[in-house]
Each structure stands twice: as structure tokens, then as C-alpha cells.
Amino acid sequence: MIKNILFDFGDVFINLDKDATVRELANAGYHEIDEELYPMIFSFEKGLLTSSEFVKMAQNYFPGIEEKKLIRAWNAIILDFPEPRLDFIKDLAAKGKFRLFLLSNTNVLHIERAKEEMGKETYEIFRDCFEGFYLSHEMKMRKPDAEVFRIILATHSLRPQETLFVDDTLEHILSARNLGLKTWHLQVGKEEVSDIIKYL
Fold this sequence. Notes:
The chain is of the alpha/beta class. Helix content is about 45%, strand content about 10%.
């Protein structure tokens, strides 16, 4: 029986355009994305770099790009937060049938942009729906690292077999599944988070 639900944030609740940053950079004249950028991005998501450190390091890969233009391109991934999804999680939290948690790979810049898009009051309402609200840059670790799941399970005394993990990234789903969590690999554009009833 499912007693706990651990949700992803991006493309589960807030919409993302995962190609937007590359597209924005291309529009600015930068058509090559160096593979060396990815470890730096992962470090930023783990909170091992400040926003200013990340931006300065990233500027080295895009010579001449202005800080504001780079940040705008970086944040272009963040889209809207559909109101029905907020209504869904508020209703689920109000019923009190499940313990609710959130785990997101993110960074300071994206979270600040999400707050702007949602509005800070809506963001706070959303956050308050969860017993635990875990962001990778605050935890200093990110999915699919198994340890991030172990910490949440241990901190809240959750049994893996009673916990449903909802994410749109297969790599994350497989990591959670290997630890015994129940999983739902949400198909973006085909499924809505409110379809979760089929998995409970």
C-alpha cells in the first residue's frame, strides 16, 4: 500500500522547455555547447558553485556574452505553472491520506526564476503542501545518486515499498526502483500529475 509520494518538480508540476537554453544561445550566435560544461552544471545543481561563480565560468565557454543575456538563456527552460496542478497538490495535501515530498534537481537561478513565474505567494503555498521539500543545490547532491533517496527515506522513516516516486526522467526512476521504491515514469505531454490515481 502506498503511504508516501515523492514528486519531481520540473515537467511534473512546472512546465519546462528543455531545448530553450540551447536555442537562446544559438540565437545569440553560440552554436556549440562544450561537453565540459556538463560537469560544471552538475556542480551548480549540487550547490558547489554560487550563481556568480557559475555565470563567470560559463562565460568562458561563450566569449563576449553579457551576464544578463547568459542568465536569460539559462532560465529560458522555466515555463508556466498550470493552476490545475496547484489545485491538485493542495487537494491531495488537504486530504491527508499520503505523506508528500518533493525532490528536484535544480539550482539557485532556476528556483528564483520559478518563484518569479509562479509568484512568491503561490510558490510558498505549493511548498507548504509537502512534508519535505528537497532541492539538489541545498542537499549538495542530485538524482540519480542513490544516496539522495536514502537520506530522504531515513530522515522521514519511510519504507521504500510504501513510497511512490514520480519523475519524468528514466535514469532517476531506475535509481529509485533499484532501492525498492514504487515508481511512475510520467510521460510529459501524454500524462498529467493528477493521473497519479492509477498508480496508488
